[in-house]
Each structure stands twice: as structure tokens, then as C-alpha cells.
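Hey team,

Filing this mostly as a record. A colleague (T.K.) asked me to run one chain through the structure pipeline before their review meeting, and I want the input and output archived in the tracker in case anyone asks later how it was produced. No errors, nothing strange. Just documentation.

Input sequence:
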Amino acid sequence: MYLDKIGILVGIGLLIFMLLSFVVKYFIRKKE
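Output structure:
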């Protein structure tokens, strides 16, 4: 169960990281 919780946290972290990088790229394109 402990490993499952870590896996879920890592998955959520990856999703948030992907969303943040996508938003950053979008704003960079919008500025240009």
C-alpha cells in the first residue's frame, strides 16, 4: 500500500509538471 501511494503521488506530480510546461510554452508563444 505504501508503494501504491508513492506511485500515485509520482503520477500526479508528472501530470502537474506536464501541464506547467505546456502553459509556459503557450505563454512564450503568445508573447512572440
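Quick notes for T.K.: The CA atoms of residues 5 and 11 lie 10 Å apart. The radius of gyration is 14 Å.
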